[in-house]
């Protein structure tokens, strides 16, 4: 009898795949976004329940766990970090992102308005522009059109690496991203940290439909948690930055995984 513990990979193999082309057809016009925090051990059971309820897993490049490398940009004084810390309603983040499986690289701008709505704009750039997009015309045009901060004022601030699973429910009224293996490297001082076996789940649902995933997460005592990877990573790796608002979130992560988060 095989009593080996189940892994994320083995449970994902039991979930039917969905391809990227099918994902493009899923439009959540009245969208509600909610983040949750849990551990990899609990995630295995969440995925088992998701498989039983007919969820499908995004498959790209022959895999259902995709590696991401993201580099956040900010001003010398970390204006975008501090706007979030100081609860400014209208704020933005600028980042480059490489999908490690395909090598595709994008510049992305996420803007939040004073109604709490977030809109993302992006443009593809050559992989060489990941750490310096200043010479890329498409990147500069995107910033000129959508960013409140010009390209000349931005430089790399925090690199974030993680693995992502994406699920869609059978009714296609919700999708969720599941980020594991989160690691940070401060681009300005070289310090590194990781969230160890913490998992950040983001549920995007049609506000008019009931959420099966919320029921599954509730069954496993997984609670909503408002978290920003950029802000948590910066708080962990920059002891000089104003971060009082985010330190309780760091303690919440440590309590969830029952471990201390270490910085190198």
What Rg do the Cα atoms give?
Answer: 19 Å
| Percent in helix | 25-40%
Count of the separate structural domains: 1
Strand content: 25-35%
Structural class: alpha+beta
- What's the name of the CATH homologous superfamily? VTC, catalytic tunnel domain
The average pLDDT value, as a whole number, equals 92
CATH class term: Alpha Beta
CATH third-level topology: mRNA Triphosphatase Cet1, Chain A
Descriptive report:
By secondary structure, the chain is of the alpha+beta class. It has one domain (44-257): mRNA Triphosphatase Cet1, Chain A. The protein contains 8 helices and 11 strands. It has helices at 8-12, 20-23, 40-52, 79-85, 137-146, 212-219, 229-237, 247-257; strands spanning 16-18, 31-39, 56-58, 66-74, 91-99, 105-112, 118-125, 155-168, 174-186, 192-194, 198-206. Strands 1, 2, 3, 4, 5, 6, 7, 8, 9, 10 and 11 form an 11-stranded mixed β-sheet that branches. A hairpin with a 5-residue loop joins β8 and β9.
């Amino acid at each position: 009898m095989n009593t080996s513990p189940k892994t994320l990979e083995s449970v994902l193999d039991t979930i039917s795949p969905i391809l990227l082309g099918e994902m493009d057809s899923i439009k959540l016009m009245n969208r509600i976004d909610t983040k949750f925090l849990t551990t990899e051990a609990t995630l295995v059971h969440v995925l088992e329940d998701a498989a039983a309820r007919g969820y499908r897993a995004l498959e790209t490049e022959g895999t259902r766990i995709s590696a991401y490398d993201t580099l956040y940009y900010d001003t010398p004084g970390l204006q975008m970090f501090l706007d979030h810390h100081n609860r400014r309603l209208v704020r933005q983040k600028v980042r480059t992102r490489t999908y490690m499986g395909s090598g595709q690289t994008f510049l992305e701008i996420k803007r939040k308005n004073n109604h709490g709505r977030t809109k993302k704009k992006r443009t593809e750039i050559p992989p060489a522009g990941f750490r310096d997009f200043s010479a890329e015309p498409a990147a500069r045009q995107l910033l000129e059109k959508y960013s409140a901060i010009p390209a000349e004022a931005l430089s790399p601030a925090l690199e974030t690496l993680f693995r992502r699973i994406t699920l869609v429910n059978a009714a296609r009224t919700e999708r969720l991203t599941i980020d594991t293996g989160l690691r940070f490297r401060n681009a300005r001082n070289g310090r590194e940290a990781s969230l160890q076996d913490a998992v950040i789940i983001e549920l995007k649902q049609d506000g008019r439909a009931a959420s099966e995933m919320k029921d599954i997460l509730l069954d496993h005592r997984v609670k909503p948690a408002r978290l920003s990877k950029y802000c948590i990573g910066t708080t962990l790796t920059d002891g000089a930055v104003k971060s009082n608002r985010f330190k309780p979130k760091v303690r919440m992560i440590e309590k969830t995984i029952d471990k201390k988060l270490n910085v190198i």
